[in-house]
What we know:
The complex is a heterodimer of chains A (212) and B (149).
Chain A: H1 2-9, H2 13-21, H3 25-47, H4 50-66, H5 78-99, H6 105-115, H7 119-122, H8 126-136, H9 140-151, H10 156-163, H11 167-186, E1 191-192, E2 196-197, H12 199-211
Antiparallel strand pairs in A: 1-2
Chain B: H1 3-13, H2 25-34, H3 36-54, H4 61-69, H5 79-87, H6 98-117, H7 128-141
Amino acid sequence: MAERLAIVIKMTDEELMKAVHDGDHTAYKTLVNSHIKSVSRCAYRILGNRNDAADICQETFLRVWLHPEKWEPKKSKLATWLYKITYNLCVDQLRKYRKNRYVSDPQKEFEEILQSTDAEEIYPTIKHRRLNFALMMLPEDQRSALTLCHYSGFSNKEAAEIMSISVRAIESSLARARRSLKKVLSDPSEINFDRGYSSNYLEKTNTEKSLL
Amino acid sequence: MNIKQLTLIFEVYGSKPEGWPVDKVKEIYDLLETNSDAISLKKEFDEMDQTLNELYLPDVDRLTQQILDHQLPQRNSNLATDLLNWIWPTHPSIWFFWRPISAASLPLLFGIFLGNYFSFGINYESSDSEYWAEELTILALIDDYGGDL
Lengths: 212, 149
């Protein structure tokens, strides 16, 4: 087992996926260990909910196990393919939220964290609280674009490939996302913790959305 | 470059130089060296990036264990899929080309085999008299004799 692990760790992505395809559990474990952090963070940033992000992670790796042949090494990097699965699952989850009119989920999660004992540790300053809330309230495409480019370190082109949109569209989403966050940071009146966003802000966001 | 263009670059590509478009880097640095508004703008975006990086993220240790402990299901495979995967592997290399080539030439080999062992009602054998009869028929059909007959 240890010997196999030593071999698997040195494998390239292609060799690793071939081993997974052949049913090698050690290769699968190595794959999970090396990508779980990035995948779970991406899912959490997009969904804003720990439990759902955990489910998405589980589903992502399950899909990799069941259909490793779907990865085409000549078309994309392994990480890009994993993020694409994660992103698509997150979008499906967000659609479920909307369908069930469960739109306030990130807000609910945020409130839960604020009430928890480790709230001070999670949000050390009011600036952190404000920015986190603003991030959660961004439209889905803007939050996803920011997550992929800022947090996951993808280039605009790679992020566009993951989200299956044009580079121009992702650049537009990024610009709007950063503009909104900066506005919230510089002007605290844009946000109201008791009621979520101020009506002024929501109005502006909806106008931006309608322009899309 | 002006402040408006710089703001747009920061919004689209972030405030880190490695994300900026290569052809704009020099212009951005030039502006940052000469314009105090540009410097404060970069500072604002840097601060925002810094705060974004400091935001809370849940711990993944328990999740990793949860995923690894999860009983992996059996893959649904059938003979046709297995055969296709064998012929054209997921990660083909040059050493696997004999498989699709041999699969593609299989119908040809099958045709040669059938042709060798079965006549399918076509009889090529003929006696000598039949051969001459055929020759005479062909000669009779040629009317370009050139004589006065």
